[in-house]
Write a structure and sequence with these properties.
- The chain has 320 residues and is of the alpha/beta class.
- 43% of the residues lie in helices and 11% in strands.
- It has a single domain (7-319), classed as Arginase, Chain A (3-Layer(aba) Sandwich), CATH 3.40.800.
- Helix 1 packs parallel to helix 12 (304-319) and helix 11 runs parallel beside helix 12 (304-319).
- The longest helix is centred in the middle third of the chain and has 29 residues, at 95-123.
- Bound molecules: zinc ion (ZN).
- Residues 176-178, 255, 257, 297-298 line the site of zinc ion.
């Protein structure tokens, strides 16, 4: 039996703040601290006792486990970074500021994903209240994703010997509204990684080449509601769990941009639907004895933090 003692990875320094400029993007830069505080309001100090804080941002040598030198150097350009973050106004800011207010918090979240993956192996379930940058590939950032935290975490576990390449299966369950083209591109030629992706086919990134790498793809159309979404999840998940049977770890990108009022996701899933999705996925993985690191992924509405908190509360009610 898999022993489940949930761990939360979080830092108040995950928040992105650029004196209000960030509000030009539908992303809530403070959703990380809001999600933790909302969960704390409901759960109380048990959350604090089970929360660990990344001690430092991921370092260059850790990022190089996946990214190229050329790409990391390119990130020193405000113009390039503004394009990746999809916020053109950032191009006018000094790099020093972008480094401390944007890149550093993101590298802290990468560290958080690395820690969540390691904690999942020990404690069954770990949640990083950030990360899930699933559009970032080895030599390119896009769609608000700069660093490929998912694959960096997998590679880090391989380098430390906690996962054995060529032997230990890894399952990526990507239920963010967008197709996870970054980790799909990075995982090309890596037979240990099994990818399950349910996404809205009508929105960004429409990456056909990356789609070919998905082991089980469930493309949905804009407007898919609870019935369709949960119905498809229930239909495909058992086969995914069977195919990935014996997987050493699952990384679950629980993007809340499937929410009906999300400004970018285009789907029509209710708050109850989001909670049901997370419950179904986590319970299926735990029943199959697959440890899981959950990442919060995308979420572009003022209520995103509430959906994250809902699922965290569920985890604590169920397993603590
Ligand atoms: Zn997304």
């Amino acid at each position: 039996m898999l022993c489940v003692e949930p761990v939360v990875v979080y830092s108040p320094d995950y928040d992105l703040s650029l004196w209000g400029i960030e509000r030009l993007h539908p992303f809530d830069g403070r959703k990380f601290s809001r999600a933790w505080r909302e969960t704390h309001r409901v759960i109380g100090d048990t959350l604090a006792r089970r929360t660990i804080r990344p001690p430092r941002p991921a370092e260059r040598h850790e990022l190089l486990a996946i990214h190229t030198e050329e790409y990391l150097n390119k990130l020193r350009s405000p113009r390039y970074l503004a394009q990746v973050i999809e916020l053109p106004v950032l191009a006018a800011l000094p790099m020093r500021l972008l480094e401390s207010r944007v890149l550093k918090p993101m590298r802290l979240a990468v560290m958080g994903t690395m820690m969540a993956a390691r904690e999942a192996l020990r404690h069954g379930v770990a949640v990083n209240i950030a990360g899930g940058y699933h559009h970032a590939s080895r030599e390119k950032g896009e769609g608000f994703c700069v660093y490929a935290d998912i694959n960096i975490a997998i590679e880090t576990l391989r380098r430390s010997g906690e996962l054995i390449a060529g032997q230990d299966k890894v399952l990526i369950i990507d239920l963010d509204a967008h197709q996870g083209n970054g980790h799909e591109r990075i995982s090309a030629g890596d037979p240990d990684i099994f990818i399950f992706d349910i996404y809205n086919r009508d929105i960004f990134p429409q990456d056909r080449e990356a789609r070919a790498r998905i082991d089980r793809a469930v493309p949905l159309s804009s407007g898919a509601d609870d019935e369709t979404y949960i119905g498809q999840l229930r239909r495909h998940l058992p086969a995914v769990i069977r195919a990935a049977s014996g997987a050493k770890i699952a990384l679950y990108i629980a993007g809340t941009d499937i929410y009906e009022r999300d400004l970018l996701g285009g789907l029509c899933v209710s708050p109850e639907g989001i909670r049901a999705r997370d419950r179904i996925v986590l319970e299926a993985l735990i029943a199959a004895e697959i440890p899981v690191a959950m990442l919060t992924g995308g979420g572009y509405s003022r209520e995103s933090y509430r959906h994250i908190a809902n699922s965290l509360c569920y985890i604590f009610e169920k397993w603590v």
